[in-house]
Amino acid sequence: MSKTFTLSEAQTLLPVLESLLRRAQKTGARAAEIEAELEQLRQRIFVSGGMHIEVTVAARRRAERDKALQDTQDTLTEIDEIGVQVKDLDKGLLDFPSVMEGKSILLCWKLGEPEIGYWHSVEEGYAGRKPIDARFGRTERERPN
Predict the structure, then answer these.
(1) pTM for this model (two decimals)
(2) How does pLDDT run across 96-127, given as a tens digit for each residue?
(3) CB atoms < 10 A from the CB of 59, how many?
(4) 3 and 83 in contact (C-beta within 8 Å)?
């Protein structure tokens, strides 16, 4: 594991990461939408045994899809370069490598959550999320509900 984050460091990065994550979701959805449109066109051509299509229109749509895919990949790379792992783009799930009691763990945040309130071991993944507790310097009173 290269970079690790304290809870405070990870929390400070959330506004920037949320913005990047939303951008990646938007461009990814755009690429998927255009891909579905192109797939429908391919199906219509196949079913009809060939048909006249506006080649320039189809080429422009492919270029738009490719740009959206590249924009998505560039944004995901930007997040990765910060040292944060995108676990699920659609759900907006991020993991921050961290260390607790000498062990590698992941601080876990999902888009829409007000703050980083969970962690899990590297092996457990999202299903094994546990609430942040006093080991992270947070008292019972400060924990999210």
Answers:
(1) 0.84
(2) 999 999 999 999 999 999 999 999 999 998 88
(3) 10
(4) yes
